[in-house]
UniProtKB/TrEMBL annotation:
<keyword id="KW-0378">Hydrolase</keyword>
<dbReference type="InterPro" id="IPR029033">
    <property type="entry name" value="His_PPase_superfam"/>
</dbReference>
<dbReference type="Pfam" id="PF00300">
    <property type="entry name" value="His_Phos_1"/>
</dbReference>
<dbReference type="GO" id="GO:0016787">
    <property type="term" value="F:hydrolase activity"/>
</dbReference>
<dbReference type="InterPro" id="IPR050275">
    <property type="entry name" value="PGM_Phosphatase"/>
</dbReference>
<protein>
    <submittedName>
        <fullName>Histidine phosphatase family protein</fullName>
        <ecNumber>3.1.3.-</ecNumber>
    </submittedName>
</protein>
<dbReference type="InterPro" id="IPR013078">
    <property type="entry name" value="His_Pase_superF_clade-1"/>
</dbReference>
Length: 216
């Protein structure tokens, strides 16, 4: 059997002083802390005491994911690849603040988008996110067969991929996602059979005080 590991990484902290749900909007870069997170994960992968065999680093086309991927790719002498299937989930509330006080939820015209949390009705269906992410994982397995590949994506697509891989229901409480900033959800395969799912937070020391407002 050939062992292959695909690491699904959530990007680092984003510079977002207005606290909007940035979604797929262009121009949202990593904060200084987010850049530190990316470097911390690169050091984790390049640690000679626990060697990793990364042969490809592929990211969502969004700026924050590309910037997160860059130091990891550099640590292995690789270029950052791009896969649009790794992009953030589509969301009706993109570009808005999301809350009851002075946010978009105080406006009745938005309420119909909350009618079905199981799909969800406010954005891209969970099953569609899982399908495109699983397709990206399958492609990564072929690229890195017998080695390791890092895919840099976003919180919700990574989380629903894990739920799908574990054959759990896709609708969930967002507060209970195990997918912190710059975390790694690792899928290990023997040939094409999934044999293990791991989770790690190489940048855990940078999480206290980090902004997760509209984090994704």
């Amino acid at each position: 059997m050939v062992a292959t590991t695909v690491h699904l990484m959530r990007h680092g902290e984003v510079h977002n002083p207005e606290g909007v749900l940035y979604g797929r909007l262009p121009g949202y870069r990593l904060s200084e802390r987010g850049q530190e997170m990316a470097r911390a994960v690169a050091e984790h992968f390049a640690d000679p005491a626990r060697p990793h065999d990364v042969v490809a680093v592929i990211a969502s086309p969004l700026q924050r994911a590309q910037e997160t991927a860059a130091p990891i790719a550099a640590a292995f002498g690789l270029e950052v690849g791009t896969d649009p299937r790794l992009i953030e989930a589509g969301n009706h509330f993109e570009g808005m603040t999301f809350g009851v006080g002075d946010g978009s939820l105080r406006h009745p015209q938005h309420w119909p988008y909350l009618r079905n949390p199981f799909r969800p009705s406010w954005g891209e269906a969970y099953k569609d996110q899982a399908a495109r992410m699983m397709a990206a994982v399958a492609s990564a397995r072929e690229v890195g067969r017998g080695h390791e590949v890092v895919l840099v994506s976003h919180q919700l697509p990574v989380w629903v991929t894990r739920l799908s891989a574990e054959q759990r229901r896709l609708w969930h409480d967002p507060r209970k996602r195990q997918c912190s900033l710059a975390s790694l959800t690792s899928l290990t395969f023997d040939d094409d059979r999934l044999v293990g799912i791991g989770y790690a937070e190489p940048a855990a020391h940078l999480l206290p005080g980090a902004s997760t407002v509209a984090g994704a």
